Amino acid sequence: MAPHGKELSEDLKKRIVALHKDVLGYKKIAKTLKLSCSTVAKTIQRFNWTGSTQNRPRHGRPKKLSARAQRHIQRLSLGNRRMSAASIAAEVEGVGGQPVSAQTIRRTLHQIGLHGCRPRRKPLLKMMHKKARKQFAEDKQTKDMDYWNHVLWSDETKINLFGSDGVKRVWRQPGEEYKDKCVLPTVKHGGGSVMVWGCMSAAGTGELQFIEGTMNANMYCDILKQSMIPSLRRLGRRAVFQHDNDPKHTSKTTTALLKKLRVKVMDWPSMSPDLNPIEHLWGILKRKLEECKVSNIHQLRDVVMEEWKRTPVATCEALVNSMPKRVKAVLENDGGHTKY
């Protein structure tokens, strides 16, 4: 069957009928409107049969699922967001007795705006965490950029020799699954990694220190004296130091040292990496490292330090400038998760 052409507009069909009422023949109408004679003839015949130029309702294949079944599918999917399409199909068939494919379930869910997506990985927030996050946001919502510009942000992270632990994707064609460019190389025991402690502010990156072995409170205190204090002093007398509630950070030894050094420490809510802009700086650093070809830990350390020092001040400034929006997002979500 030949494909249908573009459907005529209502105005054009009405002009055809009007010209026909003026006793013009099919050929003259077709020549005037630059249409085929068959198109003109069908339009006039349809008008004579129905008394209208509008198309009759088209009746396609009837829906397999009733409106009630569709509502049941919606309730199942919203009640258990991790329920697969196949499980929903089995549930629907068990209740209504009507066999339904998983693909039909997916189409139904798509029509109501539900799509299968990879869930975001976020820390588990208990009620006490949400209350602490909300209290932090309420206390900081009136702070201006001058306050945030004097905060020294800190954190530790692991950097793998062979890329991140996250999910990666490649563009490939059928049959290319095992081409070198389409596989993710792995090595025994992970190939090695380095742990680093770093700090940053709106003025740029601060000191970066590699952590040898397992860090305890005494090692953390050495890092604070050797790397944190020099970076903090560059921010002036109004500087505020931020670190999370890791046991090493809140130990008696660490607390006593910070008090002795007269360091003003920001009260920090647990489970709140989304409020720390250095978390995003780690992500930027690791993406840059993926472009560098390193084959051993010594090369990795050199490249990490080089890329850290090359981080533009504008990048750090932009991350710190997002703090008012981060605080606002926590308040809007009642202490819950944010997009950051």
Automatic annotation (TrEMBL):
Domain Transposase Tc1-like, by residue range, is 70-139
Set out the biological process GO terms recorded for this chain's protein. DNA integration; DNA transposition
Residue ranges constituting the Tc1-like transposase DDE domain according to the UniProt record: 151-300
Q: Could you tell me which residue ranges the Sleeping Beauty transposase HTH domain spans? A: 5-54
Tell me which Pfam families the record gives. DDE_3 (PF13358), HTH_SB (PF25787), HTH_Tnp_Tc3_2 (PF01498)
- GO molecular function annotations of the record: DNA binding
Can you say what this protein is called? Tc1-like transposase DDE domain-containing protein
